[in-house]
Specification:
This protein has 140 residues and is mostly beta strands. It has one domain: Rieske Iron-sulfur Protein (3-layer Sandwich). Helices cover 11% and strands 31% of the residues. It has one helix and nine strands; from the N terminus they run αβββββββββ. The strands form two sheets. Strands 1-9-8-4-3-2 form a six-stranded antiparallel sheet, with no helix packed on it. It has a three-stranded antiparallel sheet with strand order 5-6-7, with no helix packed on it. β5 and β6 form a beta hairpin.
């Protein structure tokens, strides 16, 4: 009986942690099908080797305000470059400032470590990131 309970618990853990459960739905920001690779050996992306640095890139078929890639020191975060709590407009492009991204329209700062801002219903729209050597791949 105990073996059956342990097996059932193990099965639940294995099936409950699927990478396919990634959810970045936001009613204000469209979903874009894109993939891009950044080589940190190149000067344009070399700053991503150092913790606390971020860059904005514009992938083909990607978000209108680009993708913000941020290195936490332990992992890379990639976010939509638009304010997540309003429709895309002329003032919805996030401005990078250290480990924050500021939304000009609402004057709110979003933390690039967590993607969150105080008292806001939606955090920054997160994209998937894979790292292989010096190649950072960002995709949705």
């Amino acid at each position: 009986m105990k073996k059956g309970v342990y097996l059932l618990c193990l099965l639940g853990l294995l099936t409950g942690c699927s990478r396919e459960q990634f959810n970045n739905e936001n009613p204000f920001l469209p979903n874009y099908a894109f993939s891009m690779s950044l080589d940190t050996n190149l000067a344009n992306y070399n700053s991503l080797l150092f913790a606390g640095n971020s860059i904005r890139v514009f992938p083909v078929n990607g978000p209108a305000n680009g993708v913000i890639v941020f290195y936490t020191g332990g992992q890379y975060n990639a976010f939509d470059g638009s304010c997540p709590n309003q429709n895309i407009s002329s003032c919805s492009r996030l401005t990078l400032s250290g480990s924050n991204a500021q939304c000009e329209c609402e004057g709110e700062n979003y933390n690039l470590f967590t993607g969150q801002a105080p008292n806001k219903p939606y955090s920054l729209k997160l994209y998937r990131v894979q790292v292989a050597g010096n190649i950072i791949t960002v995709f949705n």
